[in-house]
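User: I'm curious whether this sequence folds into something compact or stays loose and floppy. Could you predict its structure so I can see for myself?
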Amino acid sequence: MHPKRLLSTSFYVIVLFYFVLAASCLEKRENPIRLLAIQGDSEVSSSKFLWRNFKAPDSTGFVHIPVQDGDLIFGDGFIFSLWEGFPDSIIVDPQDSMVFVHGELWGIDFSESQNRSIFLDSIRDFDFNHLRNLGLVFPMDTTQKNFLGNIKGNQHQIDIVITNKDTLGLFNEDLKWLAANFQISTLIIDQVPDSLDFHVIRSIKTLDFLGLGNIPISLQTGILPQLPQIKSLSLGAEEPLNFDFFYNNKQLERLIAGYVVGAEIHVLKNLKELSIIVPSEYFPPYYDFAKRHPNLESLDFPSNWISDFSHLKGLEKLKWFSFQYSGDSLGLDLEELVETHPQLKLLSISHEGFRSRLANQSALRNFSQLEYLLIQKETFGIDSVIMQMPHLKYLSMPEDYLEDSLNLEAMKKALPNTIISANSGFCLGSGWLLLLLPLSLLAFLIQRLFFQVSLGKSEP
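Assistant: Here's the prediction. I'll summarize afterward.
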């Protein structure tokens, strides 16, 4: 070959290789599942397990919980978002309206302090360089603003949880002040006022996670204003939302729905994570998840929502699946789930009512890629199947089951390389759940649960 032609050919090969390499680098990195170990708190939960608390099964003191970057974790007195690079193990020490992690001040909750002036004076000389979380009450007083103004330059991006007690119409002014003085990455508002100025939220360019609890009727029946920087959204509402509610926010990648979900979510084609907390009779039958949400990697179903797994066919990216089942029949067939989603990495199974059971639960061991398994409430013999799954990295079983030392020892013997954790149902101290769901809706769900238990079975 002529030297010039050889040089030209080599040049094009190198250029082609460069573009292939560049294209591969531009591909979005998969958000891996990992275990977070927390010491110093008796119960821990997360935004993916709103109805469940996790505990250490023995005296080790470490609670283990599966997480992904972007999740919110919470326990007694703290809520943290997991940023990229969040440590795999933390020692948490809540004390006097503050949270210390590895001896460093990570969080301050002003809503818990009784005498704010005395409290602020007592911590004025603390090191705030590691501060990650603020719990605030609106309206903010001058003392609180002066203190926050003095520390505003000392922190990284920060998570802010707002308890709204504003009766003076100062909510937007306080929010503007925070937006001007802090790099806010997570913003949670427990009670959204009718007058909320969404222009202020749009001005927070660092904002990624927005939590809106108990949104007003005017917003429920309207369209959510455009919030282009928001990738993760949690919503609490007492009524179904307008069909076009999400029309301006098709960029959403995560939705935590603390309301009665309907077909309004069909426009969210970029969704990677969907958590549906409230059972819904408004949802269209035979909803095609793969067509509407082809990028789903994580899906959480409530009870009484599905009769089979056919809705999930075609979700090739699904790695994290959590569902509840109920009733007296053998309606849900695990073999069907294995056939359609053998790629699952995490599976969480719970149920409501008595005499509920899964069909073909022995098929559980056929999930060859499964690494994280969570079983809530009665086991119904599924524990004997689990003991044949030595490839599990993590197993969470009901607290009542693991309290029997014989059960715990049998599991440890069968699965010597598996981290075993205990779980239990939610309690009224689950602060994130109370922030997300309107109290009247939460009361309805609790009443419904107790009604089912009193009957000894779930509703048909």
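Summary: Residues 3-26 form the longest helix (24 residues). Residues 9-28, 450-460 have pLDDT under 50 and may be disordered.
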